[in-house]
TrEMBL record:
This is Endonuclease/exonuclease/phosphatase domain-containing protein. GO terms for molecular function: catalytic activity. Residues 13-211 form the Endonuclease/exonuclease/phosphatase domain.
């Protein structure tokens, strides 16, 4: 049973949040969370924040440019928070065309929650170097790194380089163990260096995306 005082964090690749904001507003899975991170928002820079408000939450946008072509960009991250955040957070730390959004709360300022989105078109080597740069900033930090890595954790050959970096070299645990997409892949991951007693995690069904949501509850 989750404690009401726990910090509850959720992540979903929304597959076009601009189309599904009303679905999110009506879904108790998201309104029960303290922090919700969405990727593949596909927000345009011309979209105003009031289009995407959720009652009781503050919105932070890590939009990406749409390049030179018409239509909406394919990426973008949005963070919704109903708890006070540390001053200066969230902030964007996009590296190698991989989206990183860094979040800290006032109540637990020593814990970083890092939302990640890597497009499958971006080489895994660029993901690894980007993660190294984030991890090397403070090797003693407490972190939750959560997002869509587009690496199938179920396939050992696919995950090997990421496993070596996160688990072998940096001693993180990857807490998501079931399929996270309708294609029966596990590409949405949650890495943490918190001890087992401090965090639990799981998967939530989602009817408007082909990804499932993943969540963490942190003892505070």
């Amino acid at each position: 049973m989750l404690d009401q005082s726990d910090l509850k964090v959720c992540y979903l690749n929304a597959r076009s949040l601009h189309k599904h904001i009303e679905d999110v507003r009506k879904d108790i899975n998201y309104s029960s969370m303290d922090i919700v991170i969405f990727t593949e928002t596909r927000f345009n820079s011309s979209d105003t924040d009031n289009i995407y408000t959720i009652d009781g939450y503050r919105l932070f946008r890590n939009d990406v440019s749409q390049g030179t072509g018409p239509g909406r960009p394919y990426g973008g991250t949005a963070v919704y928070s109903r708890v006070p955040l540390k001053e200066g957070y969230p902030y964007t730390h996009n590296v190698n065309e991989i989206e990183f959004t860094i979040i800290k709360t006032e109540s637990n300022p020593h814990l970083s929650i890092i939302g990640v989105y890597r497009s499958p078109s971006i080489a895994i080597s660029r993901l690894l170097s980007s993660l190294r740069s984030v991890l090397d900033e403070d090797s003693s930090a407490q972190n939750i790194i959560i997002g869509d890595f587009n690496v199938n954790w179920m396939v050992e050959s696919d995950r090997q380089s990421l496993y070596n970096l996160m688990v072998v070299q940096n001693h993180y645990r990857q807490l998501i163990t079931g399929f996270t997409t309708d294609n029966r892949t596990l590409i949405d991951h949650l890495y943490t260096n918190l001890i087992e007693e401090e965090i639990e995690a799981g998967i939530l069904e989602t009817y408007f995306s082909d990804h499932k949501a993943i969540w963490a509850s942190v003892r505070t």
